Amino acid sequence: MHLALEEVILSRKNWSLSAHATFCEGIHLITGRVGSGKSTLAQAIAGLTEPSSGKIVLHGIHRHTLSMQFPEYHTTGHLVRDEIRSWGLEPGKICMEAGLMGREYERSFALSRGELKRLHMSCILAGTRDLLILDEPFSTLDPEWKHRMCRKILSHHPPVTLIFTHEQAVLPRVDYLWELREGSLHALGPVPEAIPSWQGAPRYIEEVLKCGVVPDNITIEDTEEALCRMHD
Amino acid sequence: MIVCSDLAFRSVAIPDLCIPSGHTCVIGPNGSGKSTLLSLFAGIETPEQGRICIDETTPRKTDVGWVGEFPEDNLIFRTVHDEIASALRFRHLPHEELEPRVEQALRDIDRVDLKNARCKELSGGEKALVALAAAIAVRPKVLVLDEIDSHLDRATAEHVQRILPSFSCAHILQSTQNMDTASHADHLIYLEEGKVRHFGSPEDIFSDLEDTQFYPTLWRFASCISHLKR
User: Residues A173, A154: contact at Cβ < 8 Å?
Assistant: First the structure.
């Protein structure tokens, strides 16, 4: 099961992005600057837009979905209960997953944005899919929930998972790193080998790399462990 | 000085709070009332009870720059130029002053390239940056930023934090979920269930939060990193 981008070009006026890549099974983290094309590429992979040229081919992938950056784009149910049911899920269970117990009858848009993101992510992670495309899954979550969401992604992720993000504070354990820069998708490779060449690394990783320490993975816990090893 | 007295609005209830001038970050769990409190400071909402005074006047009589948490909602004009210029036009700024101010705002956010771009073609982060440019172009007394950094990559977010002091706003009120960013503020407000649980310097607040995920990552690593660098 894998996803192939064959000489893909995405373009609009004065802007273009090229991508030639294979996403095999595992968790892939794709980072890039503001306006580098993270959401545009995510939407093209999900089939919401057509590339200007090239092909996006799903090999053995039958079920896939995209979680968009802004949870309000997904919200269709007036009440929290209706929103959860619109995903074909059981409200009580999802409310518990999202930390919204007893709030099934509240209006979806009366939730704070972070709460709405928790609701949306709990719905999307409850499904069974072959490919999951997550565009900024941690945005607006508080630090406690960012950690919880990392654990949820790790325990619920489908065979091929793509995470597009500029998150700097809390990241999950991943298998491969990619970067969008200078109008192209760059494969940095498997983790941990790819970490030293990661230009958009969070500050906490950049600081330990300066000390000559390469963590086993990109989480805060892995970084702390690597620091402790060196310190000892 | 911003003074909240017997303030109540939706879930937010603040009997008494005085915020000195400077950069104040509002932090706290999802749903704790950060956006609601910031919308009160910006004068977008008015209290159901009590009052907010910003240097002895109300928020609605204060020049406030506002960047909301929904990038789509921040922009109403067709092009980036018109979006930034609109804030100045509404203030009846003479035409000859308008263009230099738009140019300066674009230089401040380091995105002169966006000047003639259409707003609907911008990425989420670019929309947040343009909203910031429109807010600072009028040189407001109070700048209110609701999780602007959640839309920005690291380099851009750090650039924004670096330039904020240069706008000479008496008050910058900013919510963030990045505690390393919050650790650089002059004052912190930690909200929980609509109430101010902690108010003070980052050192004081984070010493109370050391055993939680709210403690800044770089502070957690600081002693190890400085030892290794030696």
Answer: yes
ipTM of model: 0.90
Test B70 with A69 for CB contact under 8 angstroms: no
Say how many CB pairs under 8 Å bridge A and B.
132
- Do A46 and A74 touch, CB atoms closer than 8 A? no
A156 token code pair: 């619920």
Classify domain B1-61+147-152+170-230 at the CATH topology level. Answer: Rossmann fold (3.40.50)
Report strand pairing: B187-192 vs B195-200: antiparallel
Rg of chain B, C-alpha, whole Å: 18
Question: Would you give the DSSP letter of residue B21?
Answer: S
Integer angstrom CA distances of residue B77 from B91, B117, B122, B131: 16, 11, 13, 11
| Domain ranges across chain B | 1-61+147-152+170-230, 64-139
Nearest C-alpha of chain B: how many angstroms from A60?
Answer: 31
Write the pLDDT tens digit of every residue in B146-180. 999 999 999 999 999 999 999 999 999 999 999 99
Q: Which amino acid is at A202?
A: P
How would you class B210 by CB atoms within 10 Å of its CB: exposed for 0-12, middle for 13-18, buried for 19 or more? exposed
Q: How many residues does chain B have?
A: 230
Distance in angstroms (rounded) separating the CA atoms of residues A50 and A29: 22
Nearest to A33 among B34, B71, B153 (CB): B153
Is the pTM for the entire model greater than 0.90?
A: yes
Structure tokens at B68: 């909301």
